[in-house]
Specification:
Blueprint lengths: L7 H8 L4 H7 L4 H7 L2 H11 L20 H4 L1 H24 L7 E2 H14 L3 H8 L6 H14 L4 H10 L6 E8 L3 E2 L2 E2 L3 E8 H5 L4 H9 L5 E7 L8
Antiparallel strand pairs: 1-6, 2-5, 2-6, 3-4
Amino acid sequence: MGLHLLPIDAALKIASSLQASDICSLGCCSRFCKQLCDSDYLWESLTRERWPYINVASSTGSSSSTLAQSPISMGWKSFYIQRHIEISRRAQAAVKFIEQYSPSSPIEGGDYLRTIVGLWDLKLSFIDAQMVLFKPHLNELLNLVGLHYCQSWLQVPGNEIIEALERCKISERQVSVKWWKLGRWFYGFRMRDEQQTRRVSLAALVAEEGEDVLEVLSRGAVNEVLRVQVSVGEPFASN
């Protein structure tokens, strides 16, 4: 049965189960479908699902002129599309920064954490992070940044992150993390600084077995940890 034969409420209910890309495709099928898929009802639902923190009463709280516009004034579909374009464009700064590192060049822990803070400043949602950073053709460090941001900053449950990693076919990709810890004191003498290296899959980082590595990445060089490096290649050569 075609959607045009259904009551409008029923047709909207069916369309509301689709993703944004599917709704756009459906809107090309007929005049009725176009009118249906332009509905504020659909696009408000999609917007609130993707960016649940948005304050529709005034603005989004962003300094960007595009992101600060209200969906009430411009319509939900236009708001969704413009926000998607703007966030994707601005997130590319993080992508370009990480991509300058070759597999043989580790990134320092401080630079790594600053990249994640930049994503937080953009207020990327879980869906945004998947669309921008969970792509299999990207550098593994970008996959890691997306995973870490979702887990530590957005507090997304681990099972949901693992499902997203598997759906995007990046769960088994691996990264190497190396950190130096201050040597312990022994009978009045401080021992040599300790060095640890772990190579772990993205899925394992979210699971219990990777908690210690993710904790080191979250803290960076503080307290007893003197330095942290992350690499996508084999465990680090001496440097």
